[in-house]
Design brief:
By secondary structure, the protein is an alpha+beta fold. It folds into 2 domains: 35-59 and 201-304, PAS domain (Beta-Lactamase); 63-198, 2-Layer Sandwich (Beta-Lactamase), CATH 3.30.450. It contains 9 helices and 12 strands. It has helices at residues 2-75, 82-94, 145-153, 199-207, 240-247, 250-260, 271-274, 298-301, 303-314, and strands spanning 101-106, 120-125, 128-133, 157-158, 162-163, 171-183, 186-198, 216-220, 226-228, 265-269, 278-285, 290-297. α1 runs antiparallel to α2 (82-94) and α5 (240-247) runs antiparallel to α6. The longest helix is centred in the N-terminal third of the chain and has 74 residues, at 2-75.
Length: 315
């Protein structure tokens, strides 16, 4: 009897072993196929989500730029009066709800020969336009980047993110357009027109995204400064390069360079770089030279595959 069992075991063992091998091959093949399928779908979803967010932001930046450029053209008319100037700025602000504030800032003694500072600034409050005036010994606006850069380059530009203490008193970015007067072919710089966007608005757009449980989006300025990020202390205070240096992470530095150079990409990142394994999609945001990044945690996006594997193993 025992001998018969031994013979049966010897005959059945290869069959069981073969079946196990076949099962493992099928399971492994299925796992790899499912993993690749999920990763392709995630990359496709990541790109679609990223470009939707880029379009959403661009759809606001475009009219902001258009408003500032149009207002600058109106400001360049000769002998414009203070009353007409204020009326045009106020009207432009109220017609563009995405803009927090708008100013027309002139060179010292450029608008009024008796006044060093002349920079009427309208901000939005409770659907109304509140007027204040920039300038003074504690706010010499013509030394600020939002004024200096368009003056030096002669071109419109977006500022780096900053907290406008003494102006809007909120974290913001500013689009500035230089003003010129032309007389007898002499083109002379006289000031700038500005349009301000609150960073709170950008944060709301990114926080509204649902990227699994712990995924997130962020925006970099042309210099790599964080305009938005879940790590609030980084906003306006850190660049992707300063973080890379602090973490001694060359991969993050390389990605940062690609982002500020206006490239698009989808790369896998290690736990060392992002605190957890995952994938980063990045793309430029038109009109601004900003870059959007969206991080997808690998463990969460692969949860569906792991659940399927557990079901197969339980069969």
């Amino acid at each position: 009897m025992l001998k018969n069992r031994t013979i049966a075991f010897r005959l059945g063992a290869p069959v069981l072993l073969g079946s196990a091998v076949i099962f493992l091959v099928i399971f492994g093949t299925g796992y790899l196929h499912s993993r690749e399928t999920i990763l392709r779908n995630v990359e496709k979803d990541a790109r679609n989500l990223g470009f939707r967010v880029v379009y959403q932001i661009e759809s606001v930046l475009a009219p902001v730029e258009k408003m500032a450029v149009n207002l600058a053209m109106q400001m360049e008319e000769p002998d414009i009066t203070k009353e007409r100037l204020l009326k045009m700025v106020r009207r432009s602000l109220l017609a563009n709800p995405e803009i927090f504030g708008s100013a027309v800032a002139f060179e010292p003694y450029g608008f009024d020969p008796s006044a060093c500072f002349f920079a009427p600034y309208f901000t939005r409050k409770d659907n109304e336009a509140k007027l204040s005036y920039l300038g003074g010994d504690d706010y010499r606006y013509f030394y600020y980047d939002w004024y200096q850069i368009p003056k030096e380059t002669g071109k419109p530009s977006w500022s780096e993110p900053y907290f406008d203490e003494g102006g809007g008193n909120i974290p913001m970015v500013t689009f500035s357009v230089p003003l010129f007067h032309e007389r007898n072919r002499d083109r002379r710089f006289i000031g700038v027109v500005t349009a301000d966007i609150s960073l709170i608005w950008l944060e709301k757009i990114l926080s509204a995204m649902r990227i699994y449980q712990t995924g997130y989006g962020f925006i970099l300025s042309p210099n790599g400064t964080f305009i938005t990020h879940p790590q609030k202390p980084w906003i306006m205070n850190e660049t992707i390069f300063s973080i890379a240096e602090a973490w001694e992470d060359m991969e993050l530095r390389r990605i940062g360079k690609r982002m500020i150079q206006g490239e698009s990409g989808y790369v896998r990142l290690s736990e060392r770089t992002m605190g957890k394994n995952g994938f980063l999609f990045f793309a430029p945001i038109g009109y601004s030279d900003w870059s959007l990044g969206i991080f997808f945690p690998e463990a969460e996006l692969m949860a569906e595959l792991h659940g399927l594997n557990r079901q197969l193993l339980s069969l």
